[in-house]
Amino acid sequence: MTVHITTNEDIRKAVQRGLRLPVRFVRDNVLEGPCASEPEVHCEQRCDYWHIRGRERTQFRSRFHDVINALKLRQKIVVWTSGLWSDRLMLWALCAWRLRYRPEHPDLDIVVLGDAPEDGFSRGFVHVKPADARRGLDDPRALSRTRVQHMARSWRKVSGRSPVLSAGGGRADRARKDLVGLGTHQAAFFPRADGSTLTLSRIDELLFSCLGKDWSSPVDVLTHRSSAGAELLKYWMIRISDYFFAMRLRQWAEHRGAEAALESVPYRTDRPPMLEARYRLTAVGDEIKRHGLAEIAQGAPLPVWGVTAYDPAAPWVVVDGPSGQRLERLGERATQDVE
Fold first, then answer.
1. Residue 202 and residue 192: Cα distance in Å, rounded?
2. Which helix (H) or strand (E) holds 151?
3. Record's superkingdom (predicted)?
């Protein structure tokens, strides 16, 4: 018996309609939020990140465990995926977990369907027809054990305790190129350091640029008539969910209490999350916007894969170098220079 798995809703529909086959399915855009090497830990972290509760949490866990249980089986496994990074990252995870449960025979077949942007960054929408699924089943690609191991290694890197761009150069192969692209995406969530100046992450900088003394909902921020608003809407909205921006504004408003960078008031509480509250900069937030962070702890912590941005216990910051961006622990370069 062949077990079919996918992490893409459009592909799931095409397979079910075109082939009338049951498909084990879990959908989650891992381009944002925490990830973990251990499948059980990963599942709980994703539920917590998305604030999934009650029946919805039970359903998510059930779907996730259906997929994990399939990876434990000796049956043939076909993973239906796409060229989107949201699906490719989950393919890496599936390889890591298949290798974990069946180390001697981590066999997987994959079928890649749908159109995808050249850089692969999108939230998960692909154009795929039932006929594409029928053709795909005729030509699945078997992953070698070596290939599964390589993908599993990449997943461990992404979900590791250090940011992707904290590693050295290594060989300039396809895997390294992929990791650099992903690491650049991850770096946009981390604060930046230029000499003694500590500034907001690129994404937080854009959010603060769209805020001022007037009250703004997350919708107002994303549609702000400025270059920052345009970048949020046209560039980042195709990579991460609009829910992220609403959640991020709330995190800033709740961080540090009376010394928070943002303050909030209820707005359309019947329309969560994009209209349930409005935000504006406090005096602290205006100072951060103009002059940067006084310390990394001023920033609202944000889990990004295996690490957390704005974490005083692990103060990773983005620095620019001759070979591009890199993430270092705050103060690491100064220590190296002294030595």
1. 8
2. helix 145-158
3. Bacteria
* Residue 150 DSSP SS3: helix
Q: What is the pLDDT of residue 169?
A: 56
Mean pLDDT of 129-139: 93
- Which residues, 6+ apart, have CB-to-CB distance to 161 below 8 Å? 306, 307, 314
Does pLDDT of 171 surpass 80?
Answer: no
88 contacts 12 by C-beta, under 8 angstroms: no
pLDDT of residue 70: 96
Closest alpha carbon to 315 in 167, 191, 183 = 191
Domain with CATH 3.40.50 in the chain: 2-158
Q: Give the tens place of pLDDT for each residue, 27-78.
A: 999 999 999 999 999 999 999 999 999 999 999 999 999 999 999 999 999 9
Task: Tell me whether the omega of the peptide bond preceding residue 273 falls within 30 degrees of 0, making it cis.
Answer: yes
Spatial separation of the C-alpha atoms in residues 203 and 187, rounded to whole Å: 10
Nearest to 156 by CA among 304, 301, 286, 305: 305
d(CA 23, CA 3): 7
**Tokens matching residue 148:** 């599964």
| 248 CB-side CA count, 13 A | 27
Tokens describing residue 284: 């602290």
CA distance 242 to 128: 24
Confidence of residue 170 (pLDDT cuts 50, 70, 90): low
CATH of domain 2-158: 3.40.50
Average pLDDT over residues 127-151: 94
